[in-house]
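Extended Data, panel c. Modelled sequence:
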Amino acid sequence: MAGAVVSAWSPQGLGRTWPLWAIGLPLGASLIRAIGHLGTKYGLLEVDSPSFAVLVGNTVSLGTSLLVFKWEVRPLLGVGNTNPWFVAAGISNALSVQFLNNALAIGEVVAVIPIVSATPLFTLLMTFLYFGRETITWRTIATIVLIVPGVIVVALSGGR
């Protein structure tokens, strides 16, 4: 939590260019994702198969996406050569959910999820290395310094 505060803090205040209600989108996504993690853990208590959990989750995701596309009246075709990137992202997502479900099958939710929440650190590093456009400021470093030890403490405590 401290890492998020440091990341957002500015002496001039928050200079936002987006409507205030938009903060509900990532917060809502986080809440829904947390509910999904708990649902997966409960499901794994009944059916001890992380792969089955991935299959069901991705199938439901596909059905939900199709309904959203139908509701928004959007075509299912990509533009230009973007489809291979979306396929790669889909494979990456499926594998990450497989690893997450394997971890949830053998570990406690309170120990697994904070470690998975380190995703922005990997995203920042890969974006910096691949695109070279990320600006790493003192706030970015302070955020990392606050988040990484917290993840390590949670991992070592095993959710106790």
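Residues 2-7+27-157 form one domain. This feature is highlighted in the accompanying rendering.
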